[in-house]
Amino acid sequence: MSDTSPSPARLRVITGEIAPLGDLLEYADPHDPLVWTRRGAWLVGVGAALTLTAPGTDATGLAAQWRRVADAAVIDDHVGVTGSGLVAFGALPFDTASAAPAVLTVPHLVIGHRGERTWATWVLQDAGEPDPDEPRTVPFGPHWSAAVGPGALTPEGYQAAVRAGLDAISAGEVSKVVLARDIVGTVPAGADLRRLVRSLAGGYPDTWVYAVDGLIGASPETLVTVAGGTVTARVLAGTVARGADPDTDREAALALASSEKDLAEHGYAVRSLVDALTPLTSALAASEQPFTLPLPNVWHLATDVEATLAGATSALDLLGVLHPTAAVAGTPTDAAVAAIRRIEPSDRGRYAGPVGWIDAHGDGEWAIALRGAQFDLAAATDAGIPFTAHAGAGIVAGSDPEAELLETRVKFRPIVDALA
Considering the entire predicted model, what is its pTM? Predict the structure, then answer.
């Protein structure tokens, strides 16, 4: 692990309540926004006081480094709500073998809003630094649209990949494997990426909309939330497109709720989460039957899980235990990841990896990076900023390659529509 901050000095953190500010996105960096939002609650970061990186999905090492940073920090928090005080935004890759690093960024400034309260957290690297100025807005840049095309796996190639996954299931290698395909494209040079965040937050308010280190999306699925010793998570597995009218929409939801294939896929995902949480928690509860969760473009089978942490375990510690889940990898996990490496032609990067935030107490919210795109900010040129987006589907015995391809098209819709 490397600490790429300009100074190892102890952080001085000051949080105070401020007057409501209106559109918090106006305070984010147009070209590299740091954002976490859902249902009107916001965390918006500005700048980078400290950046921690780790190879692959070394959540354990990242958690240890974060503890040292948090323990050394001098924190003056006059607000004391979820998301106040010292906060870092983070994103980790899907696979330990990925070339994409895990990253935690502590912004110079975090503006938060929850309920009726708005606050600002300033992070200073030197006790001698002067107190910071008030937050400043940055006007939105012009609207833009992206050029999008096939990635390393074409639609025809994806159906071939599904057949390879079915072969692995028939051979007894896995019971389930989640296979993804990619699309690639560019957005104009200097594009204001906050416009993408705004589009996703407005169109999908019940999802966790995130922007961290060029990774921007709207995830319907939490990996884990830790708050005051309580752990919650939502498992999504099993998907069908929404109907065109109320009758067909209702029929789609009923068909999903009674689908043996989708119920089996969902069961694998719930069992993997419960098995991983059990050694670290007590009073674990999960509903016996999944419910159908409506999003603007799809129905999902969903199960909520809640438990009490048995010890001093942080949200980052849990990432190392829980990720990857059967919902985004398959069952058994190690065999499914090996199959993904063999079948998919390119590195997923941070697609389907953990994305979220953590505070000095180890509490935080982490989603699975779905329905999004990774912008390669370092590769930006006058020709534009390249990006890659992924969408996947869970393959189990009886899966139909064409139907799974259609499922990926439905899952691409949120990010493709927003890019357009």
Answer: 0.89
